[in-house]
Amino acid sequence: MGQTLYFILLLIALCSVSECVQRQYHFINEKKTWTEAQRYCRENYTDLATAENMNDTNELKKSVNDSSVQKIWIGLQKTGRDEWHWSSDPELIVIRENVTWSEALRYCRQNHVDLVSVHSEEMQRRVMNVVKRASTAEVWLGLRHSCTVGIWFWVSEDTVCYQNWAPGNGTSEEDCEHTVRSGAVQSGGDQRWISLPETHKLNFICTTYEE
Ligand SMILES: *[C@@H]1O[C@H](CO)[C@@H](O)[C@H](O)[C@H]1NC(C)=O
Ligand SMILES: *[C@@H]1O[C@H](CO)[C@@H](O)[C@H](O)[C@H]1NC(C)=O
Ligand SMILES: *[C@@H]1O[C@H](CO)[C@@H](O)[C@H](O)[C@H]1NC(C)=O
Ligand SMILES: *[C@@H]1O[C@H](CO)[C@@H](O)[C@H](O)[C@H]1NC(C)=O
Ligand SMILES: *[C@@H]1O[C@H](CO)[C@@H](O)[C@H](O)[C@H]1NC(C)=O
């Protein structure tokens, strides 16, 4: 990232309730280094722009409304010889302690970023990869059931669009008489999501950002 100043672009991933994966981009017409731009976006929005398909790319282009700007930063970062990754993709870490869902949430928010949200197939693949290291048969995700409205939601505030529930799990009608239900992923087998009372004690996955 040792380049001179360029115009940057920005981003971000607001998932509105109606449209599941539509990203929203904000063009920031200021000169910054990539690292400064990333800091700006993380503080004021979500992160530097991620564009995963043609639709995203078109939206991103549309957001740049100043025709004199020739180059803009996006959230791609080279992390290895031939490896690139998006700034908005967190690293995932499995915490091998057996705790309730609420304790897991508090731990992740205090020590890292949040309990993991699995909002795409790509993220599910990454989760499947890391949960192999867990010591419990299920591992907490940032997935919670609301009895008031009868829906499942991610604590990161993303709507649940992508789903990978085990058969019979994840329905809107959960048992609301006892404890609140939360979502966990199986660490073996099909590695699907299941609904459990939040008082079960399991390992969990936090998202964390590379500095
Ligand atoms: C966030 O935006 C404000 C207002 O534009 C700006 O002053 C501030 O420096 C930004 N944060 C970062 C980390 O750049
Ligand atoms: C791209 O946008 C079109 C029209 O808005 C939509 O029909 C299509 O499903 C979108 N594709 C993706 C991959 O989001
Ligand atoms: C681009 O859009 C922003 C936000 O809508 C606006 O403030 C700015 O004046 C626009 N710039 C140009 C060159 O149209
Ligand atoms: C957590 O629970 C698993 C399964 O019951 C057990 O094998 C493991 O030793 C426990 N880990 C800790 C740190 O207590
Ligand atoms: C949820 O999935 C698990 C694992 O497949 C299964 O044992 C359980 O019966 C399912 N729950 C319901 C309510 O069907």
UniProtKB/TrEMBL annotation:
Keyword Signal part of the UniProt annotation: yes
Residues in the signal sequence: 1-20
Pfam families on file: Lectin_C
Keyword tRNA-binding tagged: no
Alphabetical list of SMART domains matching this protein: CLECT
Keywords tagged on the record: Signal
Domain C-type lectin span(s) in chain numbering: 25-88, 100-207
CDD domains on file: CLECT
Superkingdom per UniProt: Eukaryota
Name of the protein: Macrophage mannose receptor 1-like
Organism of derivation: Carassius auratus
